[in-house]
Amino acid sequence: MEKAIVVNGLRKSFKDTDVLKGVDLEVKRGEIFALLGSNGAGKTTMVRILTTLLNPDGGTATVNGFDVAARPDQVRQSISLTGQFAAVDEILTGRENVILIAKLRHLKNPRQVADHMLERFGLTEAADRKASAYSGGMRRRLDIALSLVGNPQIIFLDEPTTGLDPEARIEVWKTVKELADGGTTIFLTTQYLDEAEQLADRIAILHEGRIITNGTLEELKQLFPPAKVEYVEKQPSLEEIFLAIIGNKEGK
Amino acid sequence: MNRYFFSDMSVMLGRSMRHIFRSMDTIITVCITPIAMMLLFVYVFGGAIQTGTDNYVNYLLPGILLIAIASGISYTAYRLFMDKQRGIIERFNSMPISRSALLWGHVLTSLVSNMISLVVIILVALIMGFRSTAGILPWLAVTGILVLFTLALTWVAAIAGLSGKSVEGASAFSYPLIFLPFISSAFVPTDSMPKVIRAFAENQPVTSIVETIRALLSSQPVGNDIWIALAWCVGIMLVAYVFAMRAYKRRAV
């Protein structure tokens, strides 16, 4: 089976607002697919439908070969969701969070899974602190770690770097790339163009409830007139300055 | 029913019990208010209240237990609301786990934590001179009624927690429930009340439950009260269960 996700004519409205007006898209196995769109474009609605949290009003969506509306249990077996807001249990420690999810995924050795995951995400030291004491970046890492428990084949990341500082953002990017290298299919939504450019194999732009373009970065670039060569003095961006300074400090 | 229902539910129960033991204030608050009320009524007002019994603690205890339950269940609404708010419910719902495991986990947590507070309150009552002539069977019957009452109110709390728009809204619903025992035979016999209030007091659920528990604990015949009490508890529980499940499924699809 070639396709991880197939969406045809997907429609959804809330009261009088049509959020999705017939969305078509396909995601291949093992690729990073970025759904790009401004706030309110319907990205989260898309993710909620594909992760079985919401039923579509019309059209079809299959994930890992299963129809999301008809066979949600099979879909849930193959996916995991990292939502816009870190869905960790703040009263539990990092370790307890991972054990909780491992138990709910009915894995055999929840403790071992926890040790492994916490190490992988650099949370071993903080493992026995309450998640409420974590920084934003740590919480996001824990959140992503929770999503990877049980090695789901398809991972949905809904605006994974919104609200993160630049360092934490780059960390998330690194994790996403590693996952994709391991063969996991990743469906990512973002409002940051550079994020899509950095990560995605394919990019689709969702605008006013429809996909207006869909393709690789190269294909999208070809839609525009060829690049002109201009000589402009390149100023470092604030992000580059920030990272350079932080990097120097940590290097010493 | 999902084949993992019981294991999923016990994981969820473990999770929210941990929440409770991490914030002992919830257990303490649930115990302190009823105990303070018991002290106040026994040592301050008690002397002036004519109940026809010589031991006012014995008379008062059943009502105090119901007040403790009514305030205890509001934490279930609070915890459900917080789960809903923080998005963790979406993680659970996108995982292959039994749909209602989370809700049942919260309900059982409410039951266990309320039973713990009831035991603490009964111990304090014993120190204050509460004595019961009841044997094992009547005590089991009392426990059964308290369990049913807790479950009934917990499902009411679940509706509030799932459909509330704010923390305050989700937990404020329990205030009227805490007041119901005051307009019943929990503190004073209903004979002294004005006609209309008396009619209300004698026909609301708390009176029949209080009368049943009181009769069981003092080895008196329970008469019809026990059936009325059971009917109220089971009735409220079933209706609230249906509405809570509906609210839960509407959220979860």
From TrEMBL, chain A:
<dbReference type="GO" id="GO:0016740">
    <property type="term" value="F:transferase activity"/>
</dbReference>
<keyword id="KW-0067">ATP-binding</keyword>
<keyword id="KW-0808">Transferase</keyword>
<dbReference type="InterPro" id="IPR050763">
    <property type="entry name" value="ABC_transporter_ATP-binding"/>
</dbReference>
<dbReference type="InterPro" id="IPR003439">
    <property type="entry name" value="ABC_transporter-like_ATP-bd"/>
</dbReference>
<dbReference type="InterPro" id="IPR017871">
    <property type="entry name" value="ABC_transporter-like_CS"/>
</dbReference>
<feature type="domain" description="ABC transporter">
    <location>
        <begin position="5"/>
        <end position="233"/>
    </location>
</feature>
<keyword id="KW-0547">Nucleotide-binding</keyword>
<comment type="similarity">
    <text>Belongs to the ABC transporter superfamily.</text>
</comment>
<dbReference type="Pfam" id="PF00005">
    <property type="entry name" value="ABC_tran"/>
</dbReference>
<dbReference type="InterPro" id="IPR027417">
    <property type="entry name" value="P-loop_NTPase"/>
</dbReference>
<dbReference type="InterPro" id="IPR003593">
    <property type="entry name" value="AAA+_ATPase"/>
</dbReference>
<protein>
    <submittedName>
        <fullName>Glycosyl transferase family 8</fullName>
    </submittedName>
</protein>
<keyword id="KW-0813">Transport</keyword>
From TrEMBL, chain B:
<protein>
    <recommendedName>
        <fullName>Transport permease protein</fullName>
    </recommendedName>
</protein>
<dbReference type="InterPro" id="IPR047817">
    <property type="entry name" value="ABC2_TM_bact-type"/>
</dbReference>
<feature type="transmembrane region" description="Helical">
    <location>
        <begin position="136"/>
        <end position="160"/>
    </location>
</feature>
<feature type="transmembrane region" description="Helical">
    <location>
        <begin position="20"/>
        <end position="44"/>
    </location>
</feature>
<keyword id="KW-0813">Transport</keyword>
<keyword id="KW-0812">Transmembrane</keyword>
<feature type="transmembrane region" description="Helical">
    <location>
        <begin position="56"/>
        <end position="81"/>
    </location>
</feature>
<dbReference type="InterPro" id="IPR051784">
    <property type="entry name" value="Nod_factor_ABC_transporter"/>
</dbReference>
<keyword id="KW-1133">Transmembrane helix</keyword>
<dbReference type="Pfam" id="PF01061">
    <property type="entry name" value="ABC2_membrane"/>
</dbReference>
<keyword id="KW-0472">Membrane</keyword>
<comment type="similarity">
    <text>Belongs to the ABC-2 integral membrane protein family.</text>
</comment>
<feature type="transmembrane region" description="Helical">
    <location>
        <begin position="226"/>
        <end position="244"/>
    </location>
</feature>
<feature type="domain" description="ABC transmembrane type-2">
    <location>
        <begin position="25"/>
        <end position="251"/>
    </location>
</feature>
<dbReference type="InterPro" id="IPR013525">
    <property type="entry name" value="ABC2_TM"/>
</dbReference>
<keyword id="KW-1003">Cell membrane</keyword>
<feature type="transmembrane region" description="Helical">
    <location>
        <begin position="102"/>
        <end position="130"/>
    </location>
</feature>
<feature type="transmembrane region" description="Helical">
    <location>
        <begin position="172"/>
        <end position="190"/>
    </location>
</feature>
<dbReference type="InterPro" id="IPR000412">
    <property type="entry name" value="ABC_2_transport"/>
</dbReference>
